């Protein structure tokens, strides 16, 4: 790498860097093309060795390396809004990859501006969603930089048509390559989830091997005794979790999320295997593990049922569909997503209380809930106590609501006509 022929610099690029084969080759290739490279690694809980990546990037020729711990920011400012919205894409996917991208991109742009860099870059392929998510975030955040996408640049992708070409380049340039055997699928992880796709998983009928999963045990291997938790909420987000079995308590956003990942994972909760529609227009098959997020969503739905007004919830649910699509499509920093997020946040002002639930072999069972902001009136709803509700009022309520139905039946003959 030290002997690369260096022309006059084309400018500085801040590269989202993982330390793996792909981004290491991209780093060296950018230098070869005449760019100065700043390597940037965002720690969003993926478990990578930041200091090893720093040393590797500097050895390969990076001018600077930034290792940024974004885990707390990721939970509080990105994951929590999806909890308030009950965000779920196509009924099953909790957006673990999609929601990490704006968090990563924002800090990358901040570094680029601070360092006077003209360019930012990522290692996402030309067929996936992530290229869109990163670049829409970049351009929404600042008009001062340009995104470089090597896997869409002919001079790059024609040279590197597969893993063998990358390995050959690595050998030629002295790029260290892990000696571990590559898994027959690709993986992307963060604090919220791990996703698996490609390779043997591209056939949607191929069963995911048990050895694939990392955050969860299979339900069959989970403990034979249920684990009971209390999750406390304020303004629609968790503020404390308590294990009723061993007394463990966590009360910061990051600790809560990490602990729920651990507890839900050992109880076999949070696995899905789906085919989804990518924004770019094709279907893809993915396997996901989202243990903590799955538990939080179940608890949030339950405390909402106790505390949120019916009509407010209907409007929030309509907004949530839009918000979820905005996240999936990479529009987190768009004007419409900012507006939607503010509206959803306002619906959560009174969503507070405690949900008690049990985790058992892949299942979440709600045991009870309570709230000082509850809209539930036990006396009003009781079949044994009349309370303040006069049952005769139901007669008028039914008549008013039946008016259009009776008129429709009268004027159009009804669904059952006299012979």
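^ Assign residues to that structure.
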């Amino acid at each position: 790498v030290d002997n690369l022929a260096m022309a006059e610099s084309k400018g500085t690029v801040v590269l989202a860097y993982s330390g793996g084969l792909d981004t290491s080759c991209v780093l060296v290739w950018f230098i070869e093309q005449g760019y100065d490279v700043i390597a940037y690694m965002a720690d969003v809980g993926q478990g990578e060795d930041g200091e090893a990546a720093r040393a590797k990037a500097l050895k390969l020729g990076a001018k600077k390396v930034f290792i940024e711990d974004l885990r707390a920011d990721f939970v509080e400012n990105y994951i929590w809004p999806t909890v308030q919205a009950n965000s779920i894409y196509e009924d099953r996917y909790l957006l673990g990859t999609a929601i990490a991208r704006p968090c990563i991109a924002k800090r990358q742009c901040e570094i680029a501006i601070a360092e006077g860099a003209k360019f930012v870059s990522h290692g996402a392929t030309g067929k996936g969603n992530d290229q869109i998510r990163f670049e829409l975030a970049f351009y929404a955040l600042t008009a001062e930089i340009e995104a470089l996408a090597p896997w869409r640049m002919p001079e790059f992708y024609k040279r590197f048509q597969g893993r063998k070409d990358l390995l050959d380049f690595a050998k030629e340039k002295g790029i260290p390559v892990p000696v571990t055997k590559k898994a027959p699928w690709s993986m992307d992880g963060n604090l919220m989830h791990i996703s698996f796709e490609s390779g043997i998983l591209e056939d949607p009928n191929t069963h995911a091997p048990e050895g694939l999963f990392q955050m969860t045990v299979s339900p069959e291997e989970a403990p034979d005794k249920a684990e009971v938790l209390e999750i406390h909420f304020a303004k629609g987000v968790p503020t404390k979790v308590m294990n009723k079995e061993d007394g463990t308590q966590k009360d910061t956003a990051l600790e809560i999320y990490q602990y729920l990942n651990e507890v839900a994972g050992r109880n076999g909760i949070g696995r899905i295997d789906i085919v989804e529609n990518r924004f770019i227009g094709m279907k893809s098959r993915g396997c996901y593990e989202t243990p903590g997020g799955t538990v939080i969503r179940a608890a949030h739905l339950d405390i909402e049922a106790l505390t949120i007004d019916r009509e407010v919830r209907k409007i929030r649910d309509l907004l949530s569909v839009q918000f979820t699509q905005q996240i999936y499509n990479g529009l987190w920093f768009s004007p419409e997503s900012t507006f939607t997020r503010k509206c959803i946040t306002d619906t959560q002002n009174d969503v507070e209380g405690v949900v008690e639930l049990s985790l058992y072999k892949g299942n979440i069972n709600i045991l009870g809930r309570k709230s000082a902001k509850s809209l539930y009136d036990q006396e009003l709803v009781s079949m044994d106590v009349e309370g303040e509700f006069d049952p005769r009022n139901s007669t008028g309520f039914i008549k008013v609501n039946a008016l259009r139905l009776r008129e429709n039946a009268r004027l159009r003959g009804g669904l059952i006509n006299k012979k």
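Residues 82 and 288 are 17 Å apart (CA to CA).
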